[in-house]
Amino acid sequence: MFGLRGKSGSFDLRRDFAASLVVFLVALPLCVGVAVASGVPAELGLVTGIVGGLLTGLLPGSSLQVSGPAAGLTVLVYEAVQEYGVAALGVLVLAAGLLQLLMGALRLGRWFRAISVAVVEGMLAGIGLVLIAGQLYAMADTKAPSSGIDKIAGLPGMLVATMGSGTALTAFGLGAGTIAVLVLWKKLPKAVQVVPAPLAAVALATAASALFELPVAKVEVQGLLEAVQPPGLSDLDRLAGVGVVGTVLAFTLIASAESLFSAAAVDRLHDGPRTDYDKELMAQGAGNTVCGLLGALPMTAVIVRSAANVQAGARTKASRVMHGLWLLLFAALLPAALGVIPLAALAGVLVHSGCKLVPVRQLGKLWREHRGEALILAVTAVAIVAVSMFEGVLIGLALAVAKTAWETSHVRIDVIDKGAGPIQAHLTGNATFLRLPKILDTLEALPQNRPIELHLAGLRHLDHACRMSLEHWAARHSAEGVEPVRMASVT
After folding, report:
1. Residue 178 needs a FRET pair 20 to 30 A away by CA distance; which of 134, 326, 440, 470 works?
2. How many CB atoms lie within 10 A of CB 391?
3. pLDDT interval class at 11 (50, 70, 90)
4. Where a domain ends, among 378, 401, 424?
5. Crossing angle for the helix pair 74-84 and 13-37, nearest 10 degrees?
6. Residue 2 resides in a domain
7. Does pLDDT of 7 surpass 50?
8. What are the b/e assignments for 15-52, b being 16+ CB within 10 Å?
9. Are both 129 and 81 inside the same structural domain?
10. pLDDT at residue 175, as a whole number
11. More confident residue, 261 or 185
12. Is the domain of 97 the same as that of 219?
């Protein structure tokens, strides 16, 4: 029914089983880290990972990408939890999931591919900057300011205070060591790299904390059943608020865009079945609907886990379903194991993840080749840091639309003056109000004492504002006592 068959039509249990273990080991520290950074119990991150495996993993759409809580939504979830409380999170995620289901049913999934890549990368870069800044405070076991600007502005003071505190310096050193392990892990022998870098980094930090009895904060454990808080009917009243609606729309836009862009990236990593974007959007919607009913974190498809799944040799959906099963068994049988993990180590993992969201290397190349796109990326990122997630994305989308409108309204004016007879002005391209200054400056510079022929047949589009302005110019020019301007209309 759910099609657990790969391109060859066979179920490769050995490969899928091995891949599921790899994905589980990658997902475990990330699920916990994202939950803690979002300001919710660590168990809720595991719940989202479980739903992403056992439910979304079974549904049609993309065959090999893996879903779960993502760093890309951490900042937005944290802001929502601070504003409305953990109890309201389920309603927000539930509404976003239902909206995704509706969009998938209306076959809008493919339209997310039309979103400007610069806006999406700017969105992720802005998220990454805020995530890095916030988690640097967590690395020092220090409470971070609420706004993105305050987080960044307060970093020098936080670092100075950390240097003067032995406890904070110990925690920060543990987090820095975690980042070092993540960065250097790829340079170790292949046999060592069988263990995923995030798991190794967190495990080493946990071992160091226990061995040297370091005075650092640990993950607080509530228990799986205690952490799950399904929304009540009274919580649904929150959806009437304008701010809540904006948060739901932001959840929906970011989760959907990140999932579908991830699907496109994963499709390039394997030669199996291609993603059906509408079905994948519905699969993500179904997962978020269930996560909302459980009061858990929102989910997206995550490129790190998805790439690990493909690179580990996964052939079918079975690998991602089994990874959800391993998360469930861990949450049910070993929940106390979370209580020994230092918060500074998880913060280090998320700082590293945040750095990967900021396309520093690509930005230079983008600036050289497409400066308009680079500007949109930078403005979107800065707006997210300075204002908020939702407004920043809207600003980026508005800039992308304005840039496209400007580029598609290209018009060319060729003036032919043979010295005798009328001057000919030929307009070609798209004449819109955006290009009126250029058009009128050229026409008004023509000699007043010569007859003029204005040829418009080469225009593909002439909007109302341009037509009226050209007619007014022709009337003014003709009033100078010379032969009236002759206009050849658009054919």
Report:
1. 326
2. 14
3. low
4. 401
5. 40
6. no
7. no
8. bbebbbebbbbbbbbbbbbbbbbbbbbbbbbbbbbbbb
9. yes
10. 92
11. 185
12. yes
Largest CA distance in the chain: 97
Going by the DSSP 8-state scheme, the letter that residue 421 receives in this structure is S
Task: Specify the pTM.
Answer: 0.74
Are residues 372 and 342 part of one domain? yes
Query: What's the Rg (C-alpha) of the chain?
Result: 28
Determine the residue type at 366.
L
Contact 389, 75 (CB under 8 A): yes
257 with 319, same domain?
A: yes
Domain boundary among 370, 401, 432: 401
Domain of 180 in residue numbering reads as 13-401
- Going from the C-alpha of 71 to that of each of 46, 134, 328, 357, the distances in angstroms are 14, 12, 21, 9
Beta bridge partners of 426: 414, 455
Tokens linked to 238: 């929150």
* DSSP secondary structure letter of residue 146: S
**Is 5 part of any domain?**
no
| Pair 441, 376 in one domain | no
**CB-based burial, 66-96: b 16+ in 10 Å, e otherwise:** bbbbbbbbbbbbbbbbeebebbbbbbbbbbb
Residue pLDDT, tens place only, 142-178: 888 877 788 888 889 999 998 988 889 999 999 999 9
Q: Reply yes or no on whether the pLDDT at 55 is more than 90.
A: yes
Measured CA to CA, the distance from residue 142 to residue 144 in angstroms comes to 6
Q: What is the pLDDT of residue 489?
A: 67
Is residue 408 pLDDT above 90, yes or no? no
What is the C-alpha separation between 257 and 274, in angstroms, rounded? Answer: 17
Q: Are the C-beta atoms of 113 and 127 separated by less than 8 Å? A: no
110 and 256 assigned to the same domain = yes
**Cβ count within 10 A of residue 231:** 21
Give the residue from 302, 317, 351, 426 showing the smallest Cα distance to 55.
317
Is 483 within the bounds of a domain?
A: yes
d(CA 295, CA 291): 6
Tokens coding 22: 């790899």
Beta bridge partners of 459: 429
Q: Which residues of 343-359 are buried (b: 16+ CB within 10 A; e: fewer)?
A: bbbbbbbbbbbbbebbb
**Element spanning 415, H or E:** strand 411-416
Q: Are residues 460 and 362 in the same domain?
A: no
